[in-house]
Design a protein that fits this description.
- The structure is a single chain.
- This protein has 363 residues and is an alpha/beta fold.
- The chain folds into 2 domains: 28-249, no CATH class; 274-346, no CATH class.
- The protein is built from 9 helices and 14 strands.
- It has helices at 52-57, 69-78, 102-109, 128-135, 183-191, 216-224, 250-272, 281-301, 331-336, and strands spanning 28-33, 46-49, 87-92, 94-95, 98-99, 117-120, 141-146, 160-164, 228-233, 236-240, 308-309, 315-316, 319-322, 343-346.
- α7 (250-272) runs antiparallel to α8.
- The radius of gyration is 25 Å and the shape is globular.
Length: 363
């Protein structure tokens, strides 16, 4: 007998699907000219590759005298341990026999989500500064290697970081191992293998890169100028410094970008997953709960500090949040349906890069 309960009771079940977060803080985008030899198939504006054979099958040569810059960069990326799960490649188009500016390529690449750090490959260093300026307006990072003693990007940029690929002070570009021109690719591929906030960009071992043997004077100049390098200490080849051009730490910028996106997507899902969030204290508390959930995740990742006790024994929280009281909000503001005045304060967990110990030996 057919179920005729719908004559008495009607039940409709709606499946509420949360928004899918398309932002990523774990993938690099190699930007450079196309293959020297016309590829077998036209290349996409942005290609996604999970291993080096896929890159070479697309037409990029990664080794030998006829190697393509993008091919070498891809080889360096996949040489790291752990190797990236995937890399993105955006190729500069040729317009009337002239290679387009890298900024045009990047603007087109913005239409493809999933990548975070721009890695230059075979791009004229004269373009680095314009790319750095362009990147400031994006939720991205820009990385490059320079083969001189001075960073070619002279401005104070929060989203760009340069790596000195020289092996010694007397090196010039023509005497540096080819792979060292892609030091930044190795560093980015290595550091993006860690969750945002869980890493520092110093002390990382890289594959395929020759460590530098720079003078103390040049090392100090690089650090004072907020540039980065790769050198040997106590038998280990490691990255050093880990800063963007302003002097901020790369991991802090990446962690901030992650937190901003995570909190934004959580609050968006709160609004779309509920029929209505009332403009009352109970509704405002739901907003605060999502803020707290995001900050807790940031704390677990190492972006935000844990709760700690001060020297006086008082508890110092890693973060605090505050939201307005519904009864203190004007009718005009409630009518606008815009909730403002939600705030948080958080202490950065940071990272230890140097240890200084003073001691005394006595009889």
């Amino acid at each position: 007998m057919a179920n005729n309960l719908s004559d008495i009771v009607t039940v409709n079940v709606d499946i509420a699907s949360p928004a899918v977060d398309s932002a990523s803080f774990d993938n690099l985008l190699i930007v450079g000219p196309g293959p020297k030899v016309t590829p077998p198939q036209p290349l996409p504006d942005v290609g996604v590759y999970t291993e080096l054979p896929e890159v070479t099958a697309a037409g990029f040569v990664s080794t030998g005298a006829n190697a393509d810059p993008v091919g070498i960069a891809a080889m360096i990326a996949f040489s790291q341990n752990p190797k990236p799960a995937q890399i993105y490649i955006a190729v500069q188009k040729v317009v009337t026999s002239v290679v387009e500016p890298a900024i045009d390529t990047l603007t087109r690449a913005l239409e493809t989500s999933g990548w975070y750090v721009i890695c230059a490959a075979g791009i004229d260093p004269a373009e680095y500064e314009p790319i750095a300026a362009w990147t400031e307006a994006q939720a991205k990072l820009f990385s490059y290697t320079f083969l001189t003693q001075t960073d070619p990007v002279g401005g104070t940029y929060f989203r760009s970081h340069g790596w000195c690929g020289l092996v010694n002070d007397l090196d010039i570009a023509s005497t540096v191992p080819i792979a060292n021109a892609y030091l930044h690719v190795a560093a980015v591929a290595k550091c993006l293998s860690y969750l945002a906030g869980s890493e520092t960009w110093s002390f990382k071992q890289l594959g395929g890169i020759t460590p530098s043997n720079l003078s103390g004077t040049l090392k100090k100049a690089l650090v004072d100028g907020h540039s980065n390098y790769f050198a040997q200490y106590a038998g280990r080849n490691i990255t050093m410094n880990g800063q963007v051009r302003t002097g901020e730490w790369i991991d802090v910028v990446r962690g901030r970008d992650w937190l901003q996106n995570d909190m934004q997507i959580r609050l968006y899902n709160l609004l779309i997953m509920n029929p209505k969030i009332p403009y009352t204290n109970s509704g405002i508390s739901l907003v605060q709960s999502e803020m707290i959930a995001s900050l807790k995740e940031a704390r677990d990742r190492g972006i935000v500090a844990q709760d700690e006790y001060g020297g006086d024994g008082a508890l110092v929280p890693g973060f605090t949040t505050s939201v307005p009281n519904s009864l203190d909000i004007t009718a005009t503001q409630k009518a606008s349906r815009i909730l403002s005045g939600c705030r948080f304060s958080a202490r950065l967990a940071g990272a230890i890069h140097m240890v200084q110990v003073n001691g005394t030996l006595t009889y």
